[in-house]
Amino acid sequence: MNSSKHTELANHAWSVADLLRGDYRQSDYGKVILPFTVLRRLECVLEPTREKVVETVARFAGQEIDTDHFLRKASGHSFYNKSDLTLRKIAADPQNAAKNLQIYVGAFSDNAREVLDKYEFNQQVRKLDGANLLYLVIGKFTDLDLHPDVVPNHNMGYIFEELIRRFAEQSNETAGEHFTPREVIKLMVNLLVAPDADALSVPGVVRTVMDPACGTGGMLSAADDRIKALNPDATVEVYGQELNPESWAICRSDLMIKGQDPENIRFGNSFSDDGHARRRFDYILANPPFGVEWKKVKEDVEYEHKSLGDAGRFGAGLPRINDGSLLFLQHMISKMKPVDVNGGGGSRIAIVFNGSPLFTGAAESGESNIRRWILENDWLEAIVALPDQLFYNTGISTYFWILTNRKDADHKGKVVLLDARDQWQKMRKSLGDKRKELGDGTNGRPDHIGDITRLYAEALQVAGDPEHALRGKVKVFWNEDFGYQRITVERPLKLRFEVTEETLAALAEAKPVAKLERSEEFVAAVRTLLGSSWTTKSEAFVALKDAVVAAGLTWPSGAPFAKAVREAVGVRDPEGEVQKVKGAPEPDTDLRDYENVPLGEDVEEYLKREVLPHVPDAWIDHTKTKIGYEIPFTRHFYVYKPPRPLAEIDAELKSLEAEIQVLLGEVAP
């Protein structure tokens, strides 16, 4: 089935919006069109065995036995409908359409009915009936041919996703929240399973695939297809979890249609209600929503982090509340199978991120600690930079992170960075914010997917060959190369001391002075020294104390008071006296600086080389040193482009001026 057929069928379903306009808000069209599309698909799938199911129902009528097994066998699927009604019959009786439709939906098996319940289908039926639209909507869908011989299972996913894309645009959904373009999924799955091609070709191989943010199930379907392309006899079991009820319903119905167990797709939030808590999987992949906050599950996540620590999913750290991307990755890592003593077992992970998880968060922040945990465990295999404008609802740049706990010997301790940002072609027609696509080598298109997949497989060899044409697109680093020591560079506080109108005002406002019973007299006594200055604190304090005592006042004792006076009358001066605390220079917080020193480098040597030549009195406060990890991807691939010569720019400007004069001459009277 070509893309024009997908669009034609999606347009047919979307045309129901013309009936809904006025009675429904645009953002609510999906609450009608999606469940009716699912219902029509289920009806078309069950049509060949409908009579057999009805006969089975009649045969067991009146018998108190569980007929579920017999009805599934009769339908040939994991779901069935016991009624002899059809949407066409229901549409033919407008007066009883609502009643008959509810009877029809109620006759589905529990697993199919649960899918429709997530759409609040009965509520929509009542609303449509009240607006005298129900039989018209049903009639529209009876003309939609979704039989499997016309629309195979895989192609049905395209239609679902096209409908969801339109609804997401209408309701202004969060960027990339529901689904991922098919060609992006294909590349992602290639990078995920390609290294296992030999193992996957073994007869009778069984592999499990899991997506904790599965949306409509596109990634699961693509992984299933890819593994079976390598080995048609392979058994692939797919699992997922989804928070959006419509997406969950679509994914679950898709699995039902394909003969997979729909119970493998759990509904709910993966963070607060892990639907696969005790399961481990061979492949885990996801495109979690970008930059979405996790405030709703904050209590659950923080409780697990604090109470379970490393025994839970989030022991490495918690990212900032407005972006849960790295929580998803920790959740996925918790689903990896352990590697046995012979090197067997283990898992591979692929996840789509924007740029934020690469570098957001200072040293020892939640994000930095998560990156550190991943890199120090040698799980990160590669990061692949993709072109921007690949996704429907966002034009931002994106990256694949590929992780595994069973790296081969050549990859151990290393991370591959692969720049594929120039691997795209412009779409003939934009879809939302998606203006670029990855070619797959068909219909005259370039084979971006194949080229990236091959470059990924050969990354180590390409990076090590200075003559290779693509060497600039691949860089290989040791895990430690992304670590750094965040050092605090201090310089001494240097002060001179003086009594001026400004320092007198500061003295009067200081709390220890303002609390004195005779504070105004205290300040007045110091005022007698207006215009005086001293190079040392001891000289200044002697003079100040003498002036206060001479005025018949007592000089207060205590460190807080002394500090307040010093802060008031002390003025920063590069040539001033170095202030000391317990014999050591006191750091000047205004001159405090921070430096990132590569992990493993001697920080004192760094100080001597980079800092002391410029500020000889600086030192490192080692108690404040922190360890951080970041992956500055774009910095590693930055290529300097010199500015154009001024003569060239000047010539271009003169040429443009001449063109403008010619144009003005043509319009002048």
UniProtKB/TrEMBL annotation:
EC number(s) stated in the UniProt entry for this protein: 2.1.1.72
Location of the DNA methylase adenine-specific domain: 154-429
Membrane-crossing segments per the record: none
Signal peptide feature range: none
Keywords, in A-Z order: Methyltransferase, Restriction system, S-adenosyl-L-methionine, Transferase
A Pfam short name: N6_Mtase
Residue span, N6 adenine-specific DNA methyltransferase N-terminal domain: 9-141
PROSITE patterns with a match to the protein in the record: N6_MTASE
Enzyme class: transferase
Catalytic activity, as annotated: a 2'-deoxyadenosine in DNA + S-adenosyl-L-methionine = an N(6)-methyl-2'-deoxyadenosine in DNA + S-adenosyl-L-homocysteine + H(+)
Family: Belongs to the N(4)/N(6)-methyltransferase family.
Protein name: site-specific DNA-methyltransferase (adenine-specific)
Annotated organism of origin: Streptomyces caniferus
